Structures are given as C-alpha cells and as structure tokens.
Amino acid sequence: MYFRFIMRFQPFQLFLILLSGVVLLFIIGPLLGMFISTTPYQLFETSKDPEVQRSIGLTLWVSMAATLVFALGGIPLAYLLARKDFALKKVILGIIDLPIVIPHSAAGIAVLGFISRETVVGKMGSAIGLDFVGAPAGIAIAMGFVSIPFLVNAARDGFLAVPVRYEQAALTLGASPIRVFFTISLPLAWRNIVSGLILMFARGMSEFGAVIIIAYHPMVAPVLIWERFSSFGLSYARPVAVLFILVSLVFFIGLRFLSRTKKDA
Amino acid sequence: MLELRNISKSYPDFKLHDISFRVEDGDYFIILGPSGAGKTQILEIIAGLVHPDEGGMFIDERDITEERIQSRGIGIVFQDYAVFPHMKVRENLAYSLRRTGYEKGQIARLVAEQAEAMEISHLLDRRPSTLSGGELQRVALARTLIRKPRYLLLDEPLASLDVSLRQGLRSLLKQLNQAGQTIVQVTHDYEEALVLADKVAVIHQGKIIQSGKADDVFHHPGSEFVARFTGIRNYFPARLFREEDRQYGELENGAILRLATDETEGRGFILIRGEDIFISLEDLPTSATNRFPGRIAGISPSVYGFEVLVDTGTLYYVRITRESLQNLGLHEGKEVWISFKASNVRFVRV
Fold first, then answer.
1. How far is it, in rounded angstroms, from Cα B117 to Cα B33?
2. Complex ipTM above 0.95?
3. Looking at residue A263, what is its pLDDT?
4. Do A172 and B49 touch (CB under 8 A)?
C-alpha cells in the first residue's frame, strides 16, 4: 500500500513534498517543543497568577478596542482606495504599507514622539483626562499603528472584488450613495473585512516592540513574557507564552467560526 | 419625451460622437448596432452612470444632464442583470421601495403584485445564486419595474437567453410597451428590432448613422452599412395557422403564404430574404410553393446589384444581379411572377 502510494508520485513531486515538509516542521517544531516541555500543572498554576490573567485580559481588550476604533476610519479609507482614482494613489498605497516594513521599535519611537506629554496630541489628551504614555490608550495607538495595514489591505481587496455594477444598479434603483455603501458594498465585502479585522486584532495582540516603548506598564502579554524571561529565565516565561498562545487560538477559532456562521445563515 | 442632444464622450479606446435622438412617451425605441458600437455606453449615459463630455439630456425640456442618478426616474436592466447576490429575490424587489415612505404592508403587497406580473412569485424566497439566467432576468426586470420608471432601459435583454425563453420575453416586453411603458433597448440583433421597435437608431463606431420609424429605416436604409446590417427587407406582421399538416401565414392584407416552422400558432412576423425570392416572366412550375403574380413597382441599385420592388398586393423586395435584370428585360410597370420556397420563409413569434 504505502509503496504504491509513493510510486504514484513523480520524483519532482516527491522533492516538492520533502521541501514543504521541512518548512512545516520548521513552524510546528518550536511550538510543539514549547507545548511538550510545559506540564499541565505549570499551565494550571500560571493561569491562576493574577498578573498573567491581568496582562492577557489587557492585551485582548486593548487590541480589540484598537481594531474597532481604527476600523471606523480604515474601512472607509479602504473603500476610497478601491473605488476612486486620484493623484498620488500609488504613494498613499505605499504609505499604508509603511508600518509593516519599518522596525517595530522604530515605529514605537515614532508614535511616542507623536503622543508624548509634550506634543499637541499629548496635551489635548491630558486636557480631557486621557493619558497615552504608560496607559491603555497609548498601547492601543501603538497596536493600531503597526496593524492597521492588514485591515486596510484586506478590506480594499474585498471592495475591489465587489462588481461596480451592483452599486450602479442600486443607485439606479434610487438608493443614495451612503445607502449603497451600507446595503451593497459593505455586506458584499464583509468576508474580507472580517478577515482583515481578525488579522489586525491578532497583529495588535502580538505586538511587542512598539508597545514596550510606549508602555512597559501596564504589561501586555508579549511584554510580560519578555519580562519573565529576562528576570527569571526560559522555564518561567514558557508557561505564560503557552497560555497566551492557547487563549489567542481559542479566540481566533471562535471569531472565524462566528463570522462564518453569520455569513451563511 | 426624453431627448439626447449632441452627446459626446471619449473613452480610452473609443469615442461616442454627437449622439442625438428623441424618445416619445410610449415609444419602443431600439438602438441597433454591432457589438462595440457604443450602445451600452449610451444607456449608461442616459442612466447617469457616466457623465458625457459634451451635450445634454432633457426630459420634457428639463435638463437632467447634471441630475443625480437616483433622482432621474430612469430604470435600467443590465445585460448581466446585477441581481444583488446577498439578498433573497424578495429583498431585491423591495430594495427600491425601502426608505421611501412606504409602509411594510404596502411594500409586501407591491412586491407580491410585481412578482405575479413577472411570473416569479415562486422564486421570492430563493437566493439569486440558485436561479437560472432567464429567472435572474425576470427578477432584474421586476426589481426595476416595481419603481415605475418613466423610461425603462434594457441592455441586450434577449442576447443571453436561449431560443425558447427569448420568445416569452419578447411577448412580455411587447405587452409592457403596449401597456404604456416607454422602452429604450439596445441590441445587435436586427430581427429583435424588426419585431419589437417602433423607432430605431442604427449606431456604428460611436455615431448614429440613421434613425427614425422602424419601417423607414428597414425599408429605406440610408447607407451601405445600414443596408447590410439590417438585412432582411421583407418582413410582415402575420398570423400563423395550421391546416392539416401545413403551416400558413396570413398577412394583414389577407395574403396567405406557405411556410415551414416549429413555432406555435399566433401572431408574429414573417421574414423573407430578398435574395431568396425569384423573379420570372411567367408562372413556372418549380418546387417553390409560394408563387404570386405582380407588377414591378420600382427598381433601384443596391449594394449587391439591384433591388426590384414587386407589388403583388404585398410589396416584396427582390435582390437580383445586373445580369438578370438585363436578361429578363425588367422595367417598372412590367408584369412578372415571383416565387419562393416555404422553407425560406421565417416566422418569429411575438
């Protein structure tokens, strides 16, 4: 059986499968190793640690909030980029990708310079009692800065895939452009937008470099993992990392599931 | 009245030149031309989806060139129908009625009525992805008509339907028009124009090269292109009937032709190509079952040679070569016979 299975493939295909396997192993190996070397008891103890609970909770809700707030501007921007042609459009597309390509510590420095207490933005924030540096609002801005391209690009792809004909048909049926956006364009691009939101949420949650420059405290999970590692060593950082990964996975699978059933209902 | 005055529009690889025409209320107006002539673009401009570079559009002398799409009162059914895929058929139909002050009950009633009229009541709870092309088209038509547009624009409505569906849609459109709906339709199929239109504009390479009453355009093509493109000159409204195994078409003047068709009995058009009719000086016994005596009412040079108009009580256009004209010694007023085979008589049901 097994031999016949192998024989069905050309040598080149076997070669491809071999290389693919190496890459998969490369991804799975370290993660699996980390899970295996963490005992259920360690996980259980870590999950009771209030500092860990707080930081995972903080990471989840701040990233969620950042995603939702930035989506309010990001989705319209994506629509504009998908539908309108204007001067410097290519430049703007490049600018949107900037946060992906620059080092995240540099991104953090840039954001800090923008929102620290000496700047206009910082002062305006303080005036209404909103502190950025060392506060959830600042963390959200750092997360948003590095993760917004994922949402804008995915949403733009989604809007591009909606035939203009549907929007035109809706207009000729007497709908206003705003109604067309909410009843035609947005629902038809929804699947891509949701993937973008999830991707942005995930990217924000895992952000370390930009966040640690803005706020060491309160500690988000990636910062806590790093802190445990630098103060106590690998075996203390590992259970936190595993726990964080598990919680994230549950969240993503749940979100994917929710967005799918909603669409097909 | 809808009027286009000197509309021009440049596209990257194409240009509409100086398009002008008038559509009176109640007209069935067909813009006829080969693909790529700019027909769809004209509809897009009328609907307001594309802004012309020059020229203006008027409804009853009111300038609508700058008016917003949603307030023009013009309905359009696209060639690809554009039925919203994320809504059920019912929601598609109701789309234009929502947010317009209608109550829920009223909307439901109007949707039910329109669905009934378009024979799609059984499809109301279906998703568009489960419908056939013909069904989608009826949904798109119902969705547009439910708003009672003053002008209904149709982009090649018959092109993507198979023959059996075509006939049903033709009668539906004809009935709509007879009930007072003004229709502006584009097509590349002259038979469609022949059967449906009362006014025709022939468009070629972005220019309208002839327009007017359908009969005038088809019987008096103003250029070689129109003559070639509009093809069949002999077409008559007729009633199809059967006796024993034979099929006959009765013309409006009472003349009866033999023909061969699969169509069912009823009203429609008879089409005979000018080159399928023979002229002889006497009644020759041939295999052609249609033979009529007549008198030559006119001879004019045409793209292919000569066009002889023979009056047998019905006017037939017959295409012949210069050689035949000379050999038979044809001239105006001469008594001749014409003959054509039953299998060369086409019948199109309306």
1. 31
2. no
3. 47
4. yes
